[in-house]
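Check the record.
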Amino acid sequence: CLAFYQAKDSWLSTWSGSFEIDDIKVWATSPKSQWAYHGSFDVEPMVESTSLAANARELIFSDYFDTLNMRKWKPEITMNTGGFHMNVNHRQTSYVKNATLFLHPALSRDFLGDWMLTQGWLDMWGTDIPSKCTFMSNNGCGHLNTPKDMAKPIHSASLRTAETFSFRYGTLEIAATLPTGNWLLSSIKLVPMGGSDSWIILLSARGNDQLEDDKDNLNWRRVYSGVCVDTTKCNVKSQLLPETDAPAKHLFGVNWTPDEIITYIDDPSNIVSRQPTPPSLQQDAYLVVSLGVGGTSQLQHEYFPNTPSKPWTNSEPYPHTTFYSNREKWWSTWATPDNNKVDKHTALKIHSVEVTAFSSSGWRYHRLVGDADQTLATLQTASEKSEIPLNAMVSSMIATYTGPTEIPRLQILDTFKAYVTTAFAGEHHVLFGATMVDSKLMATVAYTPSDSLNSIEDHAHFQVDKVQTLTLGTASMMQESRHLLLLRMIVYVASGVMLALLSLVLVRWGLNRLSRRNYVPIPDQIIFFAILIATAVVAVPCTSTQKQQMLNVITADPQWSTCKAATTPYDFYTSLTQGGPPPTTTQNDLFNSTPACTSVYDHFQDSLKQANCDQIQNLIGIPYTQFISLTMGTPSTTAPVAHSNVANPNTIITFAPNPSPSSISPNEKDQITLVKSSAAIMNYQVFATVALATIIFGF
């Protein structure tokens, strides 16, 4: 690397260009196609539903933790936690086991090493969604570690649904088992999407086995819930859990309505806190479950009283460093019996999560999620049909939904699918999938068209934005337009008449010469039938079935798929994305340099020599370019079809590997005769001329 940079004077002057990408299109052309959309947080999420009938209840979010589903949860990644821990995305601190989510503390030294705890720069900024820092203030994404101000000594976990799901008003119930371990702090809360400092506390509990202040027992049995209206003012109530030996599984719930917020344990009748809903909590909120360690908070549900066993003081500048220095005071309450690692009893265990909506509820499923390989917008619909006709047309439609907002998204997609299959007139429709992102919908369908595609009528709930089509088929099987067929017939007649006149002279001259010799006279009728049969044998025309059989020879060759894949970068991709010119020598060279292609070509030539029709035999020895055109189709640019109900008339774009009847112009006759083979035309002309001359002079 150093040598390369030191020689920059030899290459820097050549770095004057840039790689520019004008357009990218990806088409789904198989029932097995799959796709996903990834990106950053979507500030305008999709709305699934905003209202229910009176007295109706509906489960709108749930997780029973068969796996850690990143479609639902986004790990928080930050050092700004308010405690002595940093939240990380690591399966040692957040994982699923036995249908339970574990939020598990761990020593930072096990991740960073002892040296890094007190030296160097700790960077948590990240580069992509799963690793990106989520809270940057107060050195939340980067920290300079020193012996006095060490790195946060504990790694822990906090999961949220801000990127995946939020709701306003409803019932939230979470089944959980509390952890035990000194100075642990469990938390489950609802946080407003608008960034308010208010939140609903479903659960807050310390992990100490023995802890008291001058009023209450503050060990793990005391759990808090209620409402905070800012960072310094909370109205929470507490309740002691009935068990005394070890924490048991409990159901922590909240009924959140526009009028009041009620928290309870195990049963809605066992109320912990009940209070009016403040204005700051009359907005969408997301769920956060977390496990913290220590801290200097003075809030009733979070503070740790000053006791002789407390390994830090709130007033010191770096309490987390003191906490870790005095770890002999708390490590035994965390460690396994062998004293080697953190025991599982220190983990907050979440068994299930359920959110139920009622008539005043509103909720949103957000488009993008934590891990980049998961997204709610991936809606690939498998088709019941797997067979696509050889002459099928593939069309893609993009439309904007303009209907009522209260209709569920899945119902909108079902309506759009039905609309797409009727908008493209034809039969044998195969729908590859339908996707809805915000108000935009897209679907791709393969079908056999019954009429030319001139315009698409808008649906009552969908405004068509763009339609693109890709015709499929074999170039040699295409039909000719009327004007080209008329031109061909004129050529046939004119050339036939001229050859008939020539034959008139030659046949009469030949008969006169034979009549001067002492041969047995041959009746003219026998000469007529002999010439007719000979001409028919020599110039028998190829049927469409024979043509297709020759093409099947190609596609049946094991090397054909390898050959076609090797030549795809030009003849298919370019024509699909840009319209594409006819094959050039660049593609010819690519074909010629591919062993699989030359093998297929040789096989095809050998098969042609066995053919018994003249048109196919005339293809023996055709150049590679003509062979590519015959078997793969010659890309050609066609004019956009008019679209009367769209502002931009160029929104329907046709990419045709083989020219359709309406797109062939007189200037393309050379290309047509290339595929049809000019030798075949001459065979028809000779056959017609000789037959005509024989009829004239034979009777």
Observations:
- The mean pLDDT is 75.
